[in-house]
Amino acid sequence: MEVLSALILYLIFLLTLLFLSSLWKQQRKALLLPPGPTPIPLLGTPSYITIDSACKYPKLQKKYGDMFTVWLLSDPVVVLCGYDVVKDALINHAEEFSGRPVQPLADKHAQGYNFESSNTHWRYFRRFILTTLRNIGLGKKPLEERCLMEAKQLIEAVSETEGKPFNPIQLLACAVFNFINGVLFGQQLDYSDKKLQEFILHTRKHVDNVLNKTSQVCVMFPVFLKIPFLWKILCRGTLRLHLFVKEQIDFHKQTLDANSPRDFVDFFLLKIKEEEDNPDSIFCDVSLMMNITGLLAAATDSTSCTLKYCLLLIAQFPDIQAKVQQEIDDVTGSQRLPQISDRPRMPYTNAVIHELQRHLDIAPVAFYHALTKDIEFRGYTLPKGTRIIPYLSSVLFDPTQWETPEEFNPEHFLDEKGQFRTKPAFMVFSAGKRECLGVNLARMEIFILISALLQKFTFSAVSGEKLELRCSKNVKMDFIISSEICAVPRSSNND
Questions:
Q1: C-alpha 486, offset from chain centre
Q2: What is 82-493's CATH topology?
Q3: Domain with CATH 1.10.630.10 in the chain
Q4: Record-annotated residues binding heme (predicted)?
């Protein structure tokens, strides 16, 4: 009994010591940091650090200003708000804010071998991927033609709904996945192909593995990753995706022609061969697998959800939809699909697509950044390694940058002559050295697919279904995933 009492007292002493140590460290660090909610020793500010916490940031911004600090356990996380602050960090101080914190879950998935890693490898992979995309045809006809082929297949699939209510999310996913499938593996599959359906399913499960509640707990408490059965559960969908990708890689190895690379995998295999005598090379089978997995996660579900949101929202504004369709007809007629070269002559269509994306606000916060060195920033001393959250919603709805931020207003992207104007505050894809890697691919896909669909169909909401312009991301995503829509063929495009 005395031994048990002694053990209990010892545990209480240890916990008290940990509590006081955490409190002292937090208070010491907080002296130089932006203000914020008071952290709980050992736990930090758990209600402000989960994946769904962004909806609480406007209140914190109003209370503490455009920079405030929340806490991940005993580590500070500085949240940046508003266009001026986010631009100052990600663009004016791009190098200092270009790091990523050590992310036990993500790093364990990618083994440190992809373009989002927290080590120095990301720069080399990012540079290689951007160069390879240009070699494949980004910004040129080959990739545009592949996207136009996808638009034709999507139009045929939507036509089969005959104007009746349907949920387009799976068809849009097929179009997006098929396009990236062509970029990575050189394939174009029929939407009913079982291989394409499995490809979509496994990629979604992989994304869910990274974003679900269990994973978020593991981000906060990495020690849980040492539990074997838990790691197996978290990896289940990812391992199936890896098997699918490995099949493609093995086929490419057998059919590789060094003089005529077909796609991303071929270019990567040639890079591996080029560096096979370099023992320190980071280009290997593992990094090929991890970069493909990363590209799939980054470039698929978010784009298909963006496409569906564009259709759902424009259906709520029939006058705007009609004006877009008139512009498309004036530029392209009904005999050919809109192309990227048409974009300068379709300023209103381009403006509407940008405004739709601004309102979707698909990523309210950017992935964690980390400081690569100590920095004096806007009156605060931020130490190397400090985690940074750019709050992108606050940029996309910043009243100093948008005339009517809460309204759906394509005029935000038009000048006084009705010509399209770029807006630096349009940070849908983040900004700086960690800007979304597939930004140019996504822009091409979204413009071609949306304008092609609006050329051929008029979209209308199912009776009673309406999306509020400003609602939480969870409400918005539930609406996007579950809602139906009607696509009525336009009479001028029945030929």
A1: 27
A2: Cytochrome p450 (1.10.630)
A3: 82-493
A4: 436
Residue-level pLDDT at 96 = 96
Residue 16 has a pLDDT of: 64
Task: Tell me the pTM.
Answer: 0.89
- Under the banding of pLDDT at 50, 70 and 90, the label for residue 398 is very high
Q: Convert 62-88 to b/e letters by CB count within 10 Å (16 or more is b).
A: eebebbbbbbbbbbbbbbbbbbbbbbb
Res. 44: pLDDT tops 60: yes
Contact 173, 304 (CB under 8 A): yes
Question: What is the C-alpha to C-alpha distance for residues 114 and 290, in angstroms, rounded to an integer?
Answer: 6
Predicted local confidence at residue 472, as pLDDT:
64
- Confirm whether residue 310 is marked as ligand binding: no
The string of pLDDT tens digits covering residues 95-119 is 999 998 877 666 666 666 667 777 7
394: nearest Cα among 66, 90, 36: 66
**pLDDT tens, residue by residue, 71-92:** 988 889 999 999 999 999 999 9
Q: How far apart are CA 1 and CA 3, in angstroms?
A: 5
Give the separation between CA 238 and CA 87, rounded to whole angstroms: 35
Position 423 scores a pLDDT of 96
pLDDT at 214 over 60: yes
Would you state the pLDDT for residue 157? 96
